[in-house]
Prior knowledge:
The chain is mainly β. The strands form 3 sheets. Strands 1, 2, 3, 4 and 9 form a 5-stranded antiparallel beta sheet that branches. It is built from 3 helices and 11 strands. The longest helix is centred in the N-terminal third of the chain and has 6 residues, at about 30-35.
Amino acid sequence: MAQVIAYGYFDTKIKGVTFDDPLTGKNRQEIIKKHVKPGTTVTFAAEPDNPVDGQEPQEEPPESLFRIEDVGVEQESGGVTLRVSTVSIVPFEDMPPDFRGNEFVTDSNYWADVETVLALKAHLTNGTDQTISVYPDQGTIVVGNQQRGSSVWLSEAVGGDIYSGVEMAGMVLFGLKNPVDVSAIKSIRYIVGAPLDEEWEDMGPGFDLTIPLE
């Protein structure tokens, strides 16, 4: 499944060396991101082909980026907790070229005519003593008068069959067909189906989180 790691301003791009490795010919960013948890900041020692202090100038997020950190909205159902920590909203045209040119974007009907990209950082905890099934990465959002399911192929894997005691987190990505005026919208809804037990029975109600944008 494709990841959002290298595609935007959602605090998931690994910082550091991005030059091609002289031995393998592969981009070091591509090598590193397979072995480092998204969101981790990696600082490298200076090398002859690397900028001073091992860090290259980082691309600044666009002024159009809207982000709320430490949202802290959570809900529990049947011993399973879903929490949202960060909301990011940015016009599609202001996303980096490597996102807009990605094959999962250019070849997908989902992204046709999308005007706005919205990302939620979702955290999932299975506090039960059994394996459960739940799919925050297949959730739905309501923003103003728009309703949209997630982009499964470009979201990070947050969900599936989750063993007892497991905690996981990742970005869930949505493409909205219309622009979003964040000054006119007070909140968004994030809706996820109920967690299922090992017999595929609902363990409680579905998740329905209201996330403030103020």
